[in-house]
Amino acid sequence: MNTLVVYDSQHGNTERVVQAIGRALGTPGEAQAVRVGEVSPGRLTGLELLVGSPTQRFRPTPAITGWLRSIPANGLGGAGVAAFDTRIPVAEAGSVLPGFFARLAGPGAYAAQHIAEGVSPPR
Protein backbone atom coordinates (compact mmCIF):
# COMPACT_ATOMS: atom_id res chain seq x y z
CA MET A 1 0.00 0.00 0.00
CA ASN A 2 1.37 3.41 -0.96
CA THR A 3 -0.17 6.21 1.05
CA LEU A 4 0.18 9.90 0.35
CA VAL A 5 -0.71 12.25 3.19
CA VAL A 6 -1.27 15.78 1.90
CA TYR A 7 -1.61 18.37 4.62
CA ASP A 8 -1.47 22.00 5.61
CA SER A 9 -0.48 23.14 9.08
CA GLN A 10 -0.65 26.65 10.46
CA HIS A 11 0.44 26.19 14.08
CA GLY A 12 1.90 22.68 13.99
CA ASN A 13 -1.11 20.72 15.29
CA THR A 14 -2.04 19.13 11.97
CA GLU A 15 1.61 18.39 11.24
CA ARG A 16 1.91 16.54 14.58
CA VAL A 17 -1.15 14.45 13.68
CA VAL A 18 0.41 13.68 10.29
CA GLN A 19 3.66 12.59 11.96
CA ALA A 20 1.71 10.23 14.23
CA ILE A 21 -0.12 8.82 11.22
CA GLY A 22 3.22 8.26 9.49
CA ARG A 23 4.54 6.33 12.49
CA ALA A 24 1.36 4.25 12.63
CA LEU A 25 1.54 3.39 8.93
CA GLY A 26 4.99 1.96 9.45
CA THR A 27 7.47 1.26 6.70
CA PRO A 28 9.11 4.37 5.21
CA GLY A 29 8.53 4.52 1.48
CA GLU A 30 5.03 3.12 1.78
CA ALA A 31 3.70 6.33 3.30
CA GLN A 32 4.80 9.83 2.44
CA ALA A 33 3.65 13.09 4.04
CA VAL A 34 3.78 16.15 1.81
CA ARG A 35 2.75 19.74 2.45
CA VAL A 36 -0.05 20.81 0.15
CA GLY A 37 2.12 23.19 -1.90
CA GLU A 38 4.60 20.43 -2.73
CA VAL A 39 2.35 17.95 -4.52
CA SER A 40 0.55 18.08 -7.84
CA PRO A 41 -2.83 16.46 -8.43
CA GLY A 42 -1.19 14.27 -11.09
CA ARG A 43 0.47 12.16 -8.38
CA LEU A 44 -2.76 10.71 -7.00
CA THR A 45 -3.54 7.77 -9.28
CA GLY A 46 -3.40 4.40 -7.56
CA LEU A 47 -2.57 5.75 -4.10
CA GLU A 48 -4.29 5.76 -0.78
CA LEU A 49 -4.82 9.48 -0.20
CA LEU A 50 -5.25 11.14 3.17
CA VAL A 51 -5.81 14.91 3.33
CA GLY A 52 -5.42 16.84 6.58
CA SER A 53 -6.14 20.47 7.30
CA PRO A 54 -6.60 22.82 10.21
CA THR A 55 -9.76 24.86 10.04
CA GLN A 56 -10.03 28.57 9.52
CA ARG A 57 -13.49 30.02 10.00
CA PHE A 58 -14.92 26.47 9.96
CA ARG A 59 -13.33 25.63 6.60
CA PRO A 60 -10.13 23.97 5.37
CA THR A 61 -7.27 26.36 4.74
CA PRO A 62 -7.30 28.20 1.40
CA ALA A 63 -4.29 26.11 0.30
CA ILE A 64 -6.14 22.82 0.88
CA THR A 65 -9.35 24.16 -0.67
CA GLY A 66 -7.51 25.34 -3.78
CA TRP A 67 -5.61 22.08 -4.10
CA LEU A 68 -8.75 19.97 -3.75
CA ARG A 69 -10.51 22.07 -6.37
CA SER A 70 -7.57 21.59 -8.75
CA ILE A 71 -8.05 17.81 -8.82
CA PRO A 72 -9.87 16.87 -12.04
CA ALA A 73 -13.13 14.94 -11.71
CA ASN A 74 -11.35 11.70 -12.68
CA GLY A 75 -8.04 12.66 -11.05
CA LEU A 76 -8.28 10.24 -8.15
CA GLY A 77 -7.88 7.26 -10.49
CA GLY A 78 -9.15 4.63 -8.08
CA ALA A 79 -7.37 6.13 -5.09
CA GLY A 80 -8.75 5.36 -1.65
CA VAL A 81 -9.52 8.70 -0.02
CA ALA A 82 -9.89 9.87 3.58
CA ALA A 83 -9.69 13.26 5.27
CA PHE A 84 -9.29 14.74 8.71
CA ASP A 85 -9.19 18.17 10.20
CA THR A 86 -7.92 19.64 13.43
CA ARG A 87 -10.61 21.86 14.81
CA ILE A 88 -13.07 22.54 17.55
CA PRO A 89 -15.36 19.67 18.68
CA VAL A 90 -17.81 18.19 16.17
CA ALA A 91 -20.78 19.31 18.24
CA GLU A 92 -19.75 22.91 17.61
CA ALA A 93 -19.00 22.77 13.87
CA GLY A 94 -19.18 20.40 10.90
CA SER A 95 -16.32 19.58 8.55
CA VAL A 96 -16.59 20.52 4.89
CA LEU A 97 -13.76 18.24 3.68
CA PRO A 98 -16.00 15.22 3.04
CA GLY A 99 -18.17 17.34 0.75
CA PHE A 100 -15.16 18.11 -1.43
CA PHE A 101 -14.44 14.41 -1.85
CA ALA A 102 -18.06 13.62 -2.64
CA ARG A 103 -17.99 16.18 -5.46
CA LEU A 104 -14.63 14.92 -6.75
CA ALA A 105 -15.51 11.24 -6.68
CA GLY A 106 -19.01 11.68 -8.08
CA PRO A 107 -22.31 9.97 -7.33
CA GLY A 108 -22.12 6.41 -6.11
CA ALA A 109 -18.42 6.62 -5.27
CA TYR A 110 -17.36 4.34 -2.47
CA ALA A 111 -18.23 5.92 0.89
CA ALA A 112 -17.65 9.54 -0.21
CA GLN A 113 -21.31 10.35 -0.71
CA HIS A 114 -22.29 8.65 2.55
CA ILE A 115 -19.60 10.49 4.48
CA ALA A 116 -20.68 13.81 3.01
CA GLU A 117 -24.26 13.11 4.03
CA GLY A 118 -23.13 12.21 7.54
CA VAL A 119 -24.39 8.62 7.48
CA SER A 120 -22.64 5.27 7.54
CA PRO A 121 -22.27 3.42 4.23
CA PRO A 122 -24.39 0.27 3.85
CA ARG A 123 -22.76 -2.94 5.05
UniProtKB/TrEMBL annotation:
<dbReference type="InterPro" id="IPR029039">
    <property type="entry name" value="Flavoprotein-like_sf"/>
</dbReference>
<protein>
    <submittedName>
        <fullName>Flavorubredoxin</fullName>
    </submittedName>
</protein>
